[in-house]
Amino acid sequence: MANKIAIAIHGGAGTILRSNMTPELQEAYEAGLKSALDAGYKILESGGTSIDAVEAAVKSLEDFPMFNAGRGAVFNHEGKHEMDAAIMYGKNMMAGAVSNITGVKNPVSLAKTIMQQSEHVMLSGEGALSFAKEKGLAFEDEEYFFTEQRYIQWQEALKDDRIQLDHTEKKFGTVGAVALDMHGDLAAATSTGGMTNKKYSRIGDSPIIGAGTYANNNTCAISCTGHGEYFIRSVVAHDISCLMEYAGKSLREATDLVVMDKLVKTGGEGGLVAVDRHGNIAMLFNSEGMYRACRNASGLNEIKIYKD
Fold first, then answer.
1. How many CB atoms lie within 10 A of CB 256?
2. Which pLDDT belongs to residue 273?
3. CA 32/CA 47 separation, integer angstroms
4. Is the dihedral of CA 159, 160, 165, 170 positive or negative?
5. Which of 4, 73, 127, 137 would bridge 132 by S-S if both were Cys, CB 3.0 to 4.6 A apart?
6. Cβ atoms of residues 293 and 40 within 8 Å
7. Nearest-angstrom CA–CA distance, 198 and 3
8. Would you say the C-alpha torsion 247, 253, 259, 261 has a positive or negative sign?
9. For the segment 198-236, what is each residue's pLDDT rounded down to a tens digit?
10. Is 168 a catalytic residue?
């Protein structure tokens, strides 16, 4: 199995056009993706588990201020950073998820701690924060999460009283990773700051197991990014796994059917990264672009942003 190791990551999908990007900005995004890819792949290469690899990759993306997760999380209506995350291990179908938390430096690590050190799958709000403090997870103050670009977006959204999908040019800012390790085990993780100016403790698909995040050793591991409401209604990640398990479809066929056909019909925009138990990788999206990268032991090594 050693030659089967594979990892794929994403930093969000949406209206990502060359015309809106400066060379400096593109370089910065690509550097952020490469750091995360390196962090996860290093673990796989040294014989580590897929669950540790996806956590490391997502932590790297959370720490990078240009992606809408962790440090770069958007502002909600109250001017807070309300974050969600989930992680799942295909080996034993264990999962951990967290929603509506503030101040936790790496929400994905809290999701993993919930999976490994509690009898629950999903915690939220104040209770999740109490659990995080009990378990000694790292916290940061408001200053740490403040980025000028996110603040400006929030002010614009407040002015018009609208909810924004991360960037003004409709970008679904979520980060995620999927991996297959040399033991043949799959894992997936997703983390997000949600929508700019979101109200009423809105939760998207990222922390919902089967909607935005899913892993099953019999089929695949998936991390989604997009307009969460549509991904929840279509149970996107689990649907792809089911198409593989019960209809015998390949990873490519299953992701293609769900992302390019089923989601499009309901108006759901976005994409996903996926890896199957054979190490095949899919990075599919029906939007203008998706920040994405992948690497495997056979020499595949890609970092891409646009459609081509």
1. 17
2. 98
3. 24
4. negative
5. 137
6. no
7. 44
8. negative
9. 888 999 999 999 999 999 999 999 999 999 999 999 999
10. no
Q: Where are the domains of the chain?
A: 2-300
Nearest to 84 by CA among 92, 119, 164, 76: 76
- In angstroms, the CA 50 to CA 177 distance is 10
> Does residue 19 register a pLDDT over 90?
no
CATH C-level class of 2-300? alpha beta
Catalytic pick from 49, 113, 147, 174?
Answer: 174
Of the pLDDT bands very low, low, confident and very high (cuts 50, 70, 90), residue 113 is: very high
Q: What span, in angstroms and rounded, lies between the C-alpha atoms of 27 and 13?
A: 17
- 152-188 tens-digit pLDDT: 888 888 887 766 554 445 566 799 999 999 999 999 9
Give pLDDT tens digits for 273-298: 999 999 999 999 999 999 999 999 99
Confidence of residue 3 (pLDDT cuts 50, 70, 90): low
